[in-house]
Amino acid sequence: MTAEPTPPKGIGPMAKREMKLAYVMLLPTFAIVLAIVMGPLLANFWISFKPVQLGDLRPASLITNERLRGDAENAGDAVAIEYRIRNSSRDDTIAGAGFTDTLPEGLTPTALDERCTVSGQFLTCELGDIEGGFRDRIRIEATVEPSYLENALNPRDSRPVITGTADNVLTNFEFSLENFRRVFSSSEFWHVLRVSMYYTIFGTAGALVLGLFAAQLLNTTFAGRGFLRGLFLFPYVAPVIAVAFTWVVLLDPFSGTLNSILQQIGFIDSPVNFFGERAVTINLFGLQFDFPVALSTVIAFEAWRYFPLSFLFILARMQSISSEMYEAAEIDGATPLQQFWYLSLPQLAGILAVLFLLRFIWTFNKFDDIFLLTGGAAGTRTLTVDVYEQAFAVSNLGAGAAVAVVVFIVLLTFSLLFFTFSPKDEA
Question: What's the rounded mean pLDDT across residues 80-96?
Answer without folding.
Answer: 89
